[in-house]
Design goal:
two-stranded antiparallel ribbon; seven-stranded mixed β-sheet; alpha/beta; globular; 233 residues
Length: 233
């Protein structure tokens, strides 16, 4: 897929930036018990959990993977909402993000949640619980800001690596599985255009409403949350 984001590369799209962020947050947690920033705030976490409860309830025993799990806030919220910790996994390419999430898990009675160091664009995560292969093994994929950060990155050719993201995400989902994404950089229409194509087999499912704001005669939301469902091959 062609990169159509139009964003200029930013420090927020570099691994060095996030390694520095989580190195600091690990030190803060060890010193004060501060769990770190909740990316996009608690409200976005609550809205994603509410969507999951309605569409992929804990009673269906879903296997859930968060791409770019950071300090684990979203996965901890899902566990508190009734999802089995053994079915929840998070991956992040920053080792200190994974270290922080594991430490926080110990204080939240959530040690069963598995956090992996994994470069999503170049590596496959370990398989979901009870599965032999990570490919087509997940019922729900979650992204809260990771797609945004990748879009701000730059590969060796000087382009954003985000074009590789949709197919890599889709291949992890089982047929009928869901992908729920929250973004602050992309509109619903832009996410649809990037994620729905013959290679991904993703279809629009639903969107989550966020509070709207008005500025310069235009009305919109600070965040966009959209759900996609994987159709048959």
């Amino acid at each position: 897929m062609e990169d159509t984001t139009g964003f200029q590369p930013s420090e927020l799209g570099t691994r060095a930036h996030w390694d520095h962020v989580y190195e600091r947050e690990v030190a803060n947690f060890e010193g004060t018990g501060d769990e770190g920033e909740v990316w996009f705030g608690e409200d976005s976490v609550e809205k994603m959990v509410d969507w999951a409860l309605e569409n992929v309830p804990p009673t269906s025993d879903p296997r859930i993977l968060e791409i770019g799990s950071g300090n684990g806030a979203l996965l901890f919220a899902l566990h508190e909402a009734g999802y089995a910790a053994s079915n929840l996994s998070g991956l992040d390419y920053s080792p200190d993000a994974v270290r922080l999430a594991r430490m926080v898990a110990q204080t939240r009675n959530s040690e069963g949640i598995v956090f992996h160091v994994c470069d999503f664009l170049n590596e496959l995560p370990p398989p979901a619980a009870g599965q032999l292969d990570a490919v087509a093994g997940w019922d729900l994929l979650l992204d809260k800001g990771t797609y945004d950060a990748i879009a701000l990155g730059e590969d060796a050719s000087g382009k954003s690596p985000v074009a590789a993201y949709p197919v890599r995400a889709s291949r992890l989902l089982r047929e009928g599985g869901y992908f729920l994404i929250t973004s602050c950089n992309f509109t619903e229409e832009e996410l649809r255009a990037s994620l729905i194509n013959p290679e991904t087999n993703l279809q629009f499912h639903s969107h989550v409403k966020h509070p709207s704001i008005s500025f310069g005669g235009k009305t919109g939301s600070v965040y966009t949350t959209v759900a996609f469902k994987k159709g048959p091959s």
